[in-house]
């Protein structure tokens, strides 16, 4: 199994052998069972300030009981207690969505309309606040698990995103200190049922993210959690999703309106972020709604983010078939 990590870079993951999941230190194509450190990756994160130096030491110790990654089942790297999701956080994506939903009788030329929306996004970046909401941990699944498409809609869509993983409690922190509370980063695919995003029966209440995003398995996560010092700055990495081999999303995090520090800081003004929590950073352009091509049984999504590995998920119908 190709980790798609830089040679020698350590990562955390949750893997299993013979049905027993365990927290793992991952280096190249080998893993070390970390059960002697803590029972889960979330528990490792709860002691992150002391655990991370230990992990760097273990990663360079050939006398440890390393085992091949090959043959092990890879799960989501961490079981989060809270999932903070972010909407409308990529400039190009927001512009594309607004154009796609503009009224048929809108008299403005499209270029003029795009410029107006772009100016609004610039104002948001300068003086606005992120649009945050909560997701359910029960939606989390592994990076290679099949995704069951619920039968109540045929408008399920992909949203590959960078996610920050909290390593130190954060409550009312400012942007300057926010990244000190991030242990590392991982990949998520924040699947969305498009026709459930807005309540047609109660349009005055706006969006309904509970119904649109929280079906079982609608948040493929991982494969790995790469520590922040090894990942580097999160503000210019490439996010790429391919559907059946065809590129759909291919964007840099430079297009984010609010960076990771702004998102963590904003969420922490309302509640405490705890070790293991996920902070999703929003979807870049290139969703199925943009392409006019939504998910069907049999589709295969391949997602990569620079330095974080790759995930592959296959879509199946409720009965477990791909056709």
UniProtKB/TrEMBL annotation:
It comes from the Bacteria. Residues 83-314 form the Fumarylacetoacetase-like C-terminal domain. Pfam families: FAA_hydrolase. GO terms for biological process: small molecule metabolic process. GO terms for molecular function: catalytic activity; metal ion binding. InterPro entries: FAH (IPR051121), Fumarylacetoacetase-like_C (IPR011234), Fumarylacetoacetase_C_sf (IPR036663). Keywords: Metal-binding. This is 2-keto-4-pentenoate hydratase/2-oxohepta-3-ene-1,7-dioic acid hydratase (Catechol pathway). It comes from Cryptosporangium aurantiacum.
């Amino acid at each position: 199994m190709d980790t798609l990590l830089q040679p020698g870079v350590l990562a955390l993951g949750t893997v299993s052998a013979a049905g027993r999941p365990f927290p793992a230190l991952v280096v190249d194509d080998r893993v070390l069972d970390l059960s002697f450190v803590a029972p889960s990756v979330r528990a490792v994160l709860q002691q992150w300030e002391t655990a991370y130096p230990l992990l760097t030491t273990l990663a360079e110790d050939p006398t440890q009981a390393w085992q091949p990654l090959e043959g092990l089942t890879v799960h989501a790297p961490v079981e989060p207690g809270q999932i903070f999701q972010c909407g409308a956080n990529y400039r190009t994506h927001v512009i594309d969505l607004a154009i796609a939903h503009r009224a048929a009788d809108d008299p403005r030329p499209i270029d003029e309309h795009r410029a107006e929306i772009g100016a609004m996004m610039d104002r948001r970046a300068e003086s606005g606040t992120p649009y945050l909401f909560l997701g359910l941990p029960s939606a989390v699944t592994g990076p290679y698990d099949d995704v069951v498409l619920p039968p109540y809609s045929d408008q399920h869509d992909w949203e590959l995103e960078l996610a920050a993983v909290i390593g130190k409690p954060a409550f009312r922190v400012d942007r300057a200190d926010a990244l000190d509370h991030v242990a590392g980063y991982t990949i998520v695919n924040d699947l969305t049922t498009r026709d459930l995003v807005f309540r047609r029966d109660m349009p005055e209440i706006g969006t309904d993210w509970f119904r649109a995003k929280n079906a079982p398995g609608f948040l493929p996560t991982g494969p790995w959690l790469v520590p922040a010092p090894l990942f580097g700055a999160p503000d210019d990495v490439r996010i790429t999703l391919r559907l059946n081999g065809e590129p759909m999303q291919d964007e840099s995090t430079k297009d984010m309106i609010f960076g990771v520090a702004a998102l963590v800081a904003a969420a922490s003004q309302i509640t405490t972020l705890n070790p293991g929590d996920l902070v999703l950073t929003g979807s870049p352009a290139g969703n199925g709604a943009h392409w006019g091509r939504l998910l069907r049984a049999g589709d295969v999504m391949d997602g990569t983010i620079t330095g974080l590995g790759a995930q592959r998920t296959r879509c199946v119908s409720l009965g477990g078939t791909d056709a």
